Amino acid sequence: MLSSPRVMLEPSVFSDRWNTEVVASHPDVEDFRLHQAPSSIATAPILASTADFLTQAGLPDGCAPFLSFRAVAAGAVPLPEYYGLPSTGHLTQFRVIGSDGAGNPLCIDTTADDIVVRLDHEDRFATTQFVASSVSSLAEALLLLHTVPREAFLPALRQCDSRAAHPDAFLPREFAMLNDA
After folding, report:
1. Residue 72 domain boundaries
2. What is the pLDDT of residues 3-44, one digit of tens each?
3. Residue 116 lies in a domain
4. Is residue 80 domain-resident?
5. Which residues contact 69 (CB under 8 A, 6 or more apart)?
C-alpha cells in the first residue's frame, strides 16, 4: 500500500510553534531566535517552497544538536562563495544554510530537489551525508528534537522524514551524541 505524501510544514506554523514551544520555554537562550533569509533568495536556483520557508520562517541561530543556521541570513549563498573558493565544479550546486558543531556546512543541494546535506570540510567537501528531505522537514525535525521526550524523537522523526531517520543519516548520529553527553 502506498502511503500518502506528507504535507509540508508551513512556515508560519513552524515559526509560531518554534516561538511558543521552544523560545518561550527558554527565554534566556538567545540562540533560539529565528534567522530569515533576505528576499533576494528568491532569485537563487532553489525551489520556491524552499525560498518561501527561509524568508517567511527561517531557521534558528543555534540549537541542538550543535547546529548553527546564521548562514540563512546571508541568503543561502553558493558553497564556493561562502568559503572564498573558485566558483567552478560541482560545489556550486550547494547553498550554505548552516553548519554543525565541527564547522561542516549544512547545504541545500539544488540538483536533488533541495534536500539538505552535510558536507565534510576536512576532505574538501567530497563526502556528503543526508540531513533532511527539505528545509521544511529539517525545521520540523528540529522542533521535534526540542519538544518531544528523547525516547520519542526517533519514532517521531520517522513519521516526519523517514529518510532523515535512517541510522546513517546526520540527525540520528547527532542525536546519539546528545544522549551520550
Report:
1. 11-180
2. 434 557 899 999 999 999 999 888 888 889 999 999 999 889
3. yes
4. yes
5. 35, 58, 59, 60, 61, 62, 63, 97, 98, 106
